[in-house]
Amino acid sequence: MNKISSWFKAELDDTKLLLRSIPSLTVCFFVLSVVCANLMANKELISYKFIVFDCGFVFSWVMFLCMDVICKRWGAKASIKVSLIALLINLAVCGVFALLALAPGKWGEFYSSEVNEISIAVNSALNNTFGGAWYVVLGSALAFTVSSIVNALLNSLIGKHVSEKGFGAFALRSYISTMLAQFVDNFLFATVVSKFFFGWTWIQVVICSIIGAVGELLCEIFFSGIGYRVVCKWERENVGSDYLNKQTA
User: Fold this and answer.
1) Cβ proximity of 14 and 246 under 8 Å
2) Percentage of the chain with pLDDT > 90?
3) Residues 6+ apart with CB under 8 A from 128
4) Which residues lie closer than 8 Å to 232 by C-beta, 6 or more apart?
5) Closest of 13, 14, 66, 11 to residue 35, by C-alpha
6) What angle do CA 26, 156, 66 make, to 5 degrees?
7) Considering the entire predicted model, what is its pTM?
8) Distance CA 41, CA 201 (A)
């Protein structure tokens, strides 16, 4: 018991130091992207045969770019920890939304229609959207947890085997880890939610997972230059050096 308590305290102290080391704006972007992606996943962006994107796609690439820059600067363990913290915050937000959806009050859109039946339907739809379905929240949490671990470990592993230190190395580790991790994320979510609750076939699950991963990769490629410049700035200014020194001590 004492060993478990000591380990827990050491990890808690390590996490506190990590959160003090990472710029708050980066953590803010990360957490907001997770929450927004989860919420906007309720609306389709593109739906044509095997090409399926929800509006959460607009935010999901931000999550993986944040994971990549954190992993590059502070390592895989740091990236996983921040990802789990973002997930817990997202689950807390989902829980609050679900409770507020049960409140008897009416949404602003309720008063936009003069037809009572339509107003009631709109109010119910908004409650269901923000309240969320348990299987969607479960599937999303499982997919994000596994994919964030895959992304961090793969990103770090590639980085250890690449001798180059410039943008090419950053791009290689980011693109490969993002592509595979996004496939894992899409595949797990599609399996848990779309196949078992929406009746998708395995062919739909696999093809949509691949297409979604390619779409995420293209966004990563387009914005990776920004991420690389941010990491370089952190390195020049020794941002988060206290955490790095503790890991090597």
Assistant:
1) yes
2) 46
3) 101
4) none
5) 66
6) 15
7) 0.88
8) 20
